[in-house]
Amino acid sequence: MRREWLTGLTRLGGICALMIGVLAMAGCQAPTLDPTTLRQGHNLPDLHHLPWPSGYYSDAAWSPNGRWIAVLAGDDYAGSHLEVLSPDGKYHRWLTAWGCGNLGFFTFAWLPDSALSCMTDSGHLIIGSYPFTDPHTVAMNTALAAGHEGAAWLAQGPTLIVSSVTDPSDPSHEVSNGRLYAVRRDGTVLLQALTPKSDDVTRPDAAPHDQGQGTAITYVLQVSTGLGTWHLDLLLSKLTMTAAGVPQLETTRAQTLATDVDDHYTWAPSGHWIAVRHLGYQGGDKIYLLNPAHPAQTVDIVLADQVGQQMMNPIWSPDGKTLIVFSVGFNSSQPYAIT
Q: 31 or 157, which is more confident?
């Protein structure tokens, strides 16, 4: 899977509900939405199109302060670039001047202080804050081939956890499996991988709250099913820090939360739910919530056969009040907010 090119809330008696019986929030204000609405029926939520300016979006990520969404955007996939926009789409700024590189050769992530970072395959960490016009560049001690495979900042350090298909001790040689590595904000790449060589791992993310055993990391693992086929599983592992501040991941005790998933998922800010897409191109494709403490406890959110098209890349607002998903289409992907 290496290099695979891959807010609307309803008022009910003063309470806004994202999913009745699952998420309840008070005092929400519904944003102005495009009148286009996708209706599911069967007590499933409606989806409201958001009037963002581009025709194609992918790999969206919400800033911790809730003010911005970083996303790859453009008229189509080939023309997409890194962009920051407000959730209502009224403010947007292209970040091509940052010099992150060509599409597929960099990865981006928000820091805990809502600064945005992009890490380039050429070995640079570029970091900038609002208004995102004057980023600074940090030279890394070695390069990682992390393009398009996801990254997440831990509050500790802070430390960037990133998936790379090169070993930092030999950055010119690309391998078949992605492994997780840690990068400090000063550009120091820790040479010891967090995941074993046998595992092909992408899309790391940090659990927003203690999951009962300290800090936890989720990530997507490619699992071979034989004859050149594979599926993706979502795993959770405990993360510890040594006295020297080096992260270690307990992969031998990893918990499988879900199977047959897409490689995009999102934690609820409460830490009680993860929104995941189940891949089912022959039927059953959906986005659903799972409880990481009890993975068998799930709640369907978007069923492709009900909404009339597949949806992907769920992102959750930091206040827990909005879930945005994106339509799946050839060179076309649009944002929808769930009511």
A: 157
